[in-house]
C-alpha cells in the first residue's frame, strides 16, 4: 500500500457480495424453496445415515438422537479438531469427545452428506438455475465495471419476472 492510500476511503458493500442475506425475494425464491435441498434431505434420511444414528445411540446408551443430532455431532467434531489444529504444535495429537462418538467408518458418509448440502446451497442456489441469482450476478458485473448508483437491496425489489 502506498503512503497516499487512505484506508478510510474503502467502502464495505457487504449487501452486494452477500446479497442472499439481504434480499427478501432471494430468500423466499431460493433459500425457502423446498426443491433446493431435496437431495440433502433424501440422503439425510437414508439407511446409511440412520445406521450411523443407531450405532451412536447404542454406544451412548440408547438416548433419543435424530439424524440432525448426528450431523451436529459431526460438525462439532470438525470444528473442535480445526480449533485444536490451529493451536497445536506438530507433536500434539488431536482428539475430540465429539469425534469419539462417531464410528470411524461413518466419517465418509457424513462428509458426503455435508458435501451435498454445500453443493446444493452454493452451486444450485447461487447458480443460474434460479432466475433471481442470474440477475444478481449481472448486477455485480455491472457494479464492478461501473460505479452503480442503485444499491443492491433496491435492485432486488426492482426485479420482475
TrEMBL record:
GO CC terms: membrane
TM segment ranges: 123-146
Taxonomy, superkingdom: Eukaryota
The keyword Hydrolase belongs to this UniProt entry's keyword annotation: no
SUPFAM superfamilies: Phosphoglycerate mutase-like
MF (Gene Ontology): acid phosphatase activity; inositol phosphate phosphatase activity
Predominant subcellular localization, coarse grouping: membrane
Record keywords: Membrane, Signal, Transmembrane, Transmembrane helix
Official protein name in the record: Uncharacterized protein
